[in-house]
């Protein structure tokens, strides 16, 4: 009976989080706070993917900004075109060159269906190609981390340098509507929050299923003894590739929802610093735990907003300090506190000492 | 060379050579491994035993030929060789320490399932896993994390994983090293039991273990096959006494 209870606990947790986000938060938070929470939810989607690749798969993905950008710019282009109306051209392009036609790759983003498809397909294609090249060559560890980080830097630089097509450092902004809903209406903004929170819950459910599936066991096995997995008849590159692609899609969806919420998408939301910011939440929350990345990302997002409101500039130091303290004192993240607590409780219930071995500690 | 080389299900190695930067770790090895007998590979350190197994399991590149079930193994990638039915263990037992005994075995069964079923959770215990648990004697410990097992139990778990993945050929690298006398005896029994319809090749340094359990012994020295035969034949072989055992220890081998 205890095992049955244990296996349904994560689902209860997800249900509790859904209740908090979808029912409690809209009831008690102001429009501004709710919009902020929506933004943290976007980061949390990225974080859930990082938990999968890094926490369970052992791949430190330091460049999730790349996939965040894919979704964000797809959404940004669509909303920009929607805002200027049929046949219109985004203002920043007219300012840059009044006579230039709309670049060909922008044209299909007039279609909402195409945009939504691209938000999912683009990260799958890009992550598959990247992952295939990286994992088949058995690039791992620090080399993998640096490589992904470099990709984020490269893409940010590319976007900065192509002002004509992407708005450069200023980014895309001035959106007025989201799939036909005007962004001025607070009710519509609440709708966007609801969509975002639902997507986040969806990501959690996907990851929960992956963790309890045989794939989840295989991923942990690949993390801990990659060569051994090869001698079970699996190609570990494929195992890692699946996790990498799933995480990329989550980052892309997070990026896409970020645009209507933040009202702007610029390279600084996806560059190296932003990508590390994504990691920080995951590390604080506990990368291998199901809820660690979500709670960490929400906490870091909240901390950033509140602390920077009161003492601008100090937040980054607080974050740095937290990062150091957690890494040294609590390598399993905040979530491991819950696991430890649960271990003690279970030990008391069953009447034996809690196990010293922690699944989440690796 | 005896008639057993003609066994239709044997793994046939012909003229296998492996070199590392010009150094010939193995040169021109001819050997065959047939089902139903415990085949031991012995030889001094650096003789090329592990390199031979590495070459046959895709870890290092070799030239020549190694066929099993009509398939050329050289040039295949490791996981394809496993799927062709050839499995191995390593000198240091590598089990997935954070997974339970059951999960370790279950993962090994995965290569016989369609890939999409990986997305589902495990329900119940597959028969092959249950049988393997029974065979390796770890039924009671199925829910323990593999990391807490004793050294010998880890080695058995690895053998269990080979059973579950239904390896028809098993290369076992120094399986009984570090085991107690009781564990050795049990391992020998285990190998006998599972070896009836499989090809089992054991790299071994423990001469007592070899004497007690070997049907066929291949002696390697300096990258070549020095001699092959039954334990008695090997013990009587002049060349083996000369370069491997040394005349001085002849008495202890006969003891």
TrEMBL record, chain A:
The keyword Cell membrane applies. The chain crosses the membrane at residues 61-81, 113-135, 141-159, 191-211, 241-264, 276-302, 314-338. Keywords: Cell membrane, Membrane, Transmembrane, Transmembrane helix. It is a multi-pass membrane protein. InterPro entries: ABC_transp_permease, ABC_transptr_urea_perm_UrtC, LivM-like. The keyword Transmembrane applies. It holds the Pfam family BPD_transp_2. It is found in: Cell membrane. Signal peptide: none annotated. It comes from the Bacteria. This is Urea ABC transporter permease subunit UrtC. It comes from Nocardioides phosphati.
Automatic annotation (TrEMBL), chain B:
SMART domains: AAA. The keyword Amino-acid biosynthesis does not apply. Keywords: ATP-binding, Nucleotide-binding, Transport. CDD domains: ABC_Mj1267_LivG_branched. Residues 11-247 form the ABC transporter domain. The keyword rRNA processing does not apply. It comes from the Bacteria. One of its GO terms (molecular function) is ATP binding. It holds the Pfam family BCA_ABC_TP_C. NCBIfam families: urea_trans_UrtD. PANTHER family: CONSERVED COMPONENT OF ABC TRANSPORTER FOR NATURAL AMINO ACIDS-RELATED (PTHR45772), HIGH-AFFINITY BRANCHED-CHAIN AMINO ACID TRANSPORT ATP-BINDING PROTEIN (PTHR45772:SF8). This is ABC transporter ATP-binding protein. It comes from Nocardioides phosphati.
């Amino acid at each position: 009976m205890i095992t049955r209870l244990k296996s349904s606990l994560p689902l209860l947790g997800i249900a509790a989080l859904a209740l908090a986000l979808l029912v409690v938060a809209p009831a008690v938070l102001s429009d501004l706070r709710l919009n902020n929470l929506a933004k943290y939810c976007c980061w949390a989607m990225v974080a859930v993917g990082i938990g999968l690749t890094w926490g369970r798969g052992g791949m430190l993905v330091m460049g999730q900004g790349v996939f965040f950008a894919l979704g964000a710019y797809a959404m940004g282009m669509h909303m920009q075109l929607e805002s200027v109306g049929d046949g219109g051209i985004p203002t920043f392009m007219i300012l840059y060159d009044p006579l230039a036609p709309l670049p060909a790759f922008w044209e299909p983003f007039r279609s909402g269906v195409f945009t939504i498809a691209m938000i999912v397909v683009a990260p799958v294609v890009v992550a598959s190609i990247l992952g295939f090249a990286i994992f088949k060559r058995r690039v791992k560890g620090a080399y993998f981390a640096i490589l992904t980080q470099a990709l984020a830097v490269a893409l940010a630089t590319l976007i900065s340098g192509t002002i004509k097509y992407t708005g450069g450092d200023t980014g895309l902004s001035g959106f007025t509507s989201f799939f036909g809903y005007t962004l001025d209406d607070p009710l519509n903004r609440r709708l966007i929050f609801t969509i975002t929170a639902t997507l986040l819950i969806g990501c959690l459910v996907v990851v929960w299923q992956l963790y309890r599936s045989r794939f989840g066991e295989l991923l942990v096995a690949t993390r801990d003894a990659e060569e051994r997995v090869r001698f079970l008849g699996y190609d570990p590159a494929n195992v890692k590739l699946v996790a990498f692609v799933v995480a990329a899609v989550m980052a892309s969806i997070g990026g896409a929802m970020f645009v209507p919420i933040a009202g702007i998408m610029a390279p600084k939301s996806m560059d190296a610093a932003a990508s590390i910011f994504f990691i920080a939440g995951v590390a604080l929350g506990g990368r291998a735990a199901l809820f660690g990345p979500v709670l960490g990302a929400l906490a870091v997002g909240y901390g950033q907003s509140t602390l920077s409101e009161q003492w601008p500039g100090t937040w980054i130091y607080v974050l740095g300090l937290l990062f150091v303290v957690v890494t040294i004192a609590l390598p399993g993240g905040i979530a491991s506190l819950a696991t430890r607590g649960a271990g003690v409780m279970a030990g008391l219930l069953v009447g034996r000492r809690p196990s010293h071995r922690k699944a989440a500690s690796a | 060379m005896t008639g057993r080389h003609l066994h239709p299900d044997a793994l046939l190695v012909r003229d296998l050579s492996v070199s590392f930067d010009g150094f010939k770790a193995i040169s021109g090895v001819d050997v065959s491994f047939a089902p139903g007998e415990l085949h031991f590979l012995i030889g001094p350190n650096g003789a090329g035993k592990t390199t031979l197994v590495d070459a046959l399991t895709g870890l290092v590149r070799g030239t020549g030929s190694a066929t099993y079930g009509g398939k050329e193994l050289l040039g295949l990638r490791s996981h394809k060789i496993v799927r062709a039915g050839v499995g191995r263990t390593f000198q240091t037992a590598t089990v997935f320490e954070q997974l339970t005994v059951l999960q370790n075995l279950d993962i090994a069964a995965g290569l016989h399932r369609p890939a999409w079923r990986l997305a589902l959770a495990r329900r119940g215990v597959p028969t092959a896993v249950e049988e393997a648990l029974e065979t390796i004697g770890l039924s009671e410990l199925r829910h323990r994390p593999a990391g807490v097992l004793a050294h010998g139990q880890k080695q058995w778990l690895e053998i269990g994983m080979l059973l579950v993945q239904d390896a028809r050929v098993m290369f076992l690298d120094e399986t009984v090293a570090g085991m107690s006398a009781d564990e050795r005896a049990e391992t020998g029994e285990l190998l006998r039991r599972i070896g009836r319809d499989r090809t089992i090749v054991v790299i071994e340094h423990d001469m007592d273990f070899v004497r007690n359990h070997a049907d066929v012994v291949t002696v390697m020295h300096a990258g070549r096959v020095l001699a092959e035969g039954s334990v008695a034949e090997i013990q009587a072989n002049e060349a083996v006494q000369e370069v491997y055992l040394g005349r001085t220890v002849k008495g202890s081998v006969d003891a």
